[in-house]
Amino acid sequence: MELWSNSTLVNYKGKLGAFVGGGVGGVVTGETTSFELWVLVDAEKHEWSKHLYVLPPLWKNVVAKSDLYFVGLTGKDEIVLSELYLYDPFYVYYYNIKDNTVTRVEIQGMSAFKNFKFHVSLDHVEDVKLMQHV
Fold first, then answer.
1. How far apart are the first and last CA of the chain?
2. What is the pTM of this model?
3. How many CB atoms are located within 10 Å of the residue 34 CB?
């Protein structure tokens, strides 16, 4: 198992996982037919298991001409993908690995940031309490 710079590391059921796939630079498009999730089974022995996911035929219609990148994996076994640049409308894609289904969700109110490069993250928590200056 070799990790490439475009691999996305995830927590897969408590184990280290890495998404590998897509085209050049790890880009996933409507033309992508499958991708791999490698899961570290034994770190000392460097053993990995390979999970191959073949995307449903509907994938091409839902994703169309978008260039997507792996964001992560939800606790409900959904792989989250997003574009690197913000376009209007902006979508986040969920691929359910159990059901082999894809869902496109439109995120509204992002037009002010159109054409900016950004990163979508999962499970981000920030402490927003006000700090007192002493």
1. 52
2. 0.80
3. 11
